[in-house]
């Protein structure tokens, strides 16, 4: 092993440690508005009066949160889980209640396998509109847009775009009713 590859491995280890500790230490911040400010200082675009409860974040680029955008008055409640591999954009006055936002990686960074080639890494934005309610334990896959005023019922798995003013539920989430 040459000196170049040792330095590369050490740098990657160091960056991994920074990401790990930043994602854990934010949990020690005692107030949702203070945590929003810290996310802002770490590069997220955060509107006014945003509340971020004790959520978990993964795969933020280096130590920054620049892939995350949250509009005015929106709330991320306890145990929401954000995978910041790709962009996550949340509109205004939206409630995210303990839901999971994720991207797809069946192990491409770690090994080659039949499953990895059948289900390659997929990173694409998740866009949530204004006045949306994403209820508890919903999972939002990447490359999904949820329209304004939509509701995602508890436990749904959202695999496709959700039109504005609709309630979707189930796995995969289907339109259950029109809201206007
Ligand atoms: C979406 C929700 C708010 C219900 O809204 P609602 O307007 O009262 O909806 P309805 O009861 O009229 O249900 C409409 C349809 O969706 C279905 N549905 C509602 N919630 C569902 C769910 N979580 N999973 C599967 N189907 C669901 C209903 O069975 C009904 O289907 P049908 O028309 O085939 O009978 C509620 O189901 C929910 O998810 N609440 C969130 C609870 C939560 O997460 N709390 C913690 C965070 S604040």
Please provide a brief summary of the model.
With 180 residues, the protein is an alpha/beta fold.
Strand order of the largest sheet: 2-5-8-11-14-16-17
In total, how many beta strands?
Answer: 17
Spatial separation of the terminal alpha carbons: 64 Å
CATH superfamily (homologous) name: Hexapeptide repeat proteins
pLDDT average, as an integer? 92
Rg value: 18 Å
Helix content: 10-25%
CATH architecture, by name, is: 3 Solenoid
In what range is the share of β-strand residues? Answer: 25-35%
Number of domains: 1
CATH fold topology: UDP N-Acetylglucosamine Acyltransferase, domain 1
Shape: globular
Structural class: alpha/beta
Which spans of ≥5 residues are poorly predicted at pLDDT below 50?
A: none
Order of helices and strands: HHEEEEEEEEEHEEEEEEEE
Family: Belongs to the transferase hexapeptide repeat family.
GO molecular function: O-acyltransferase activity
Pfam families: Hexapep (PF00132)
InterPro entries: Hexapep, Hexapep_transf_CS, Hexapeptide_acetyltransf, Trimer_LpxA-like_sf
Walk me through what this model shows.
21% of the residues lie in helices and 25% in strands. The chain has 180 residues and is of the alpha/beta class. It has one domain (3-178): Hexapeptide repeat proteins (UDP N-Acetylglucosamine Acyltransferase, domain 1, 3 Solenoid). It is globular, with a radius of gyration of 18 Å. It starts with a helix and ends with a strand. It binds coenzyme A (COA). Residues 97, 135-136, 151, 153-155, 167, 169-170, 176-177 line the site of coenzyme A (COA). This is Acetyltransferase. Keywords: Acyltransferase, Repeat, Transferase. Pfam families: Hexapep.
